[in-house]
Amino acid sequence: MSRLKYSAVPGYFTSFGDENVLSHRGDEGQHLGFVDGCSGWEDIQRLLDEDSSLKLLVLARHGQGHHNALESKYGTQEWERYWALQPGVHEVTLVDAQLTELGKQQVRSTGKELLLPMVEKIGFPEKFYSSPLRRCLETYMESWGQVFTSELVSSSTEVSVYVKEQCRETLGRHYCDKRLPHDHVVEQYGEETLLGNTKVHWVYEPGMANEDTMWSETHRETVEEIDYRIGGALQELLSGEERYISLTCHSGVIQSALRVLKHPEILQLQTGGVVFVLCKPAETEAKV
């Protein structure tokens, strides 16, 4: 059972243009447009200005990781049977898998083609969140690095990215979804990163365990379990004063978020893909 007290609002993005449509394809970008009658980001900004209960959630999937490349090479059946259960292949570490060069290129394109046009129209998100897995930290740096330009931010700009354990990919068995020790990640990426003119602070949760206590070698999280986890995480993210929120995460997290928000499924969302979701408190009607 979901703990989320928000639901998606239909009628603006093509991903949820009609309440009767149950799914959309995500591999061709058809879910990224605006429905007829919605003029684009200006209308979204107007909605947010007029109705203080509405929130905009930007769900960004990481770019291709080494685990995604292996699954593409060997096929999903062999990936699930063997490769996903290995901590590494040849010289490639699969634990807390990183982005491939293609993955970095994908999310740079996402930054330029999707995030930058959004920011140019309605400004930057009020709050940034990320999964703690390395591919998501790298995705944030590579994608938003295309947006924090000298034309949009000053040389003294500082941004905080809140790293949330509960926003991780489906837990268990697959080594790509096992988090490396926290001190290893901090040593690798630092506690702050410079993206162009912008200093990014990685804000980890107080008391974050050094070792991964959530991942299990024997149990893969069920749909019900991840929906319960992600429902709780989204409730926390959406309960603050911020009304324009970015979350850099995973396919499994995005699909779970769409389920608990009662949003149509996005089939085959590609690595580096994004889903925009307008949300409202579930117990009230949106004033749109």
UniProtKB/TrEMBL annotation:
Entry-linked SUPFAM superfamilies: Phosphoglycerate mutase-like
Keyword Isomerase appears in the UniProt entry: yes
A GO-annotated cellular component: cytoplasm
Keyword rRNA processing attributed: no
Pfam families per the UniProt record, alphabetical: His_Phos_1 (PF00300)
Protein name: KLLA0B12628p
Superkingdom as given in the UniProt entry: Eukaryota
CDD domains: HP_PGM_like
Single GO MF descriptor: phosphatase activity
UniProt keyword annotations, A-Z: Glycolysis, Isomerase
